[in-house]
Amino acid sequence: MQDCIFCKIINGDFNTEFVLENEYAVVFKDINPKADTHLLVVPKKHVESLNELNDEALLGKLMMTVKAAAQKAGLKSYRTVINTGKEAGQEVFHLHIHILAGNIRL
Ligand code: AMP
Ligand code: ZN
């Protein structure tokens, strides 16, 4: 998607450092962290939100990526959040899962 900030990040346009990358997703630090550790797990495929996701297997892969990223970051305890739709606080319309740990403010 041309005007999607997360597609651009996945594309390497901003030289964003990936905490983890696999076949399905990238994981990078949130630019405006709402916790001591705040990561975003983002599917490589552009899907606007959970409401547009039909691929059950991809959701499983994303959740396993959450676990792998948390382990890599040394997190034993963490919160996962998916905002779906504007009124729920979704700002970037490319599906992503927040991982938050330590002094969570979200
Ligand atoms: P949401 O409100 O669930 O759509 O979350 C979008 C998140 O993306 C927010 O927490 C933003 O701080 C974060 N964000 C927006 N632009 C960037 C960026 N260029 N790099 C990293 N995180 C970003
Ligand atoms: Zn996108």
Concise account of the structure shown:
Helix content is 23%, strand content 21%. It has helices at 5-11, 56-72, and strands at residues 20-21, 25-29, 37-43, 79-81, 97-101. It is globular.
Structure, described:
The chain is of the alpha+beta class. It has one domain (5-104): HIT-like (HIT family, subunit A, 2-Layer Sandwich). Helix content is 23%, strand content 21%. The chain contains 2 helices and 5 strands; from the N terminus they run H-E-E-E-H-E-E. It has helices at residues 5-11, 56-72, and strands at residues 20-21, 25-29, 37-43, 79-81, 97-101. The relative contact order is 0.25. Bound molecules: adenosine monophosphate and zinc ion. Adenosine monophosphate binds next to loops.
List keywords for this structure.
106 residues, alpha+beta, HIT family, subunit A, 5-stranded antiparallel beta sheet, 2 helices, 5 strands, 23% helix, globular, binds adenosine monophosphate, binds zinc ion
Task: Kindly state the number of beta strands.
Answer: 5
Low-confidence stretches: none
Q: Using the 3D structure, state the CATH architecture.
A: 2-Layer Sandwich
What is the end-to-end distance?
28 Å
Give me the CATH superfamily: HIT-like
The hetero molecules present are: adenosine monophosphate, zinc ion
Q: How many independent structural domains? A: 1
Measured as a percent range, the helix fraction is 10-25%
Number of helices: 2
Please identify the structural class as seen in this structure. Answer: alpha+beta
Write out the strand line-up for the largest beta sheet, numbering strands in chain order. 1-2-3-5-4
Q: What's the story with the biggest beta sheet? A: 5 strands, antiparallel
| Content of β-strand | 15-25%
Mean pLDDT across all residues, rounded?
97
By CATH reckoning, the class would read Alpha Beta
In sequence order, what are the helices and strands, one letter per element? HEEEHEE
Integer-rounded radius of gyration: 13 Å
**CATH topology, anyone?**
HIT family, subunit A
Shape, per Cα inertia axes:
globular
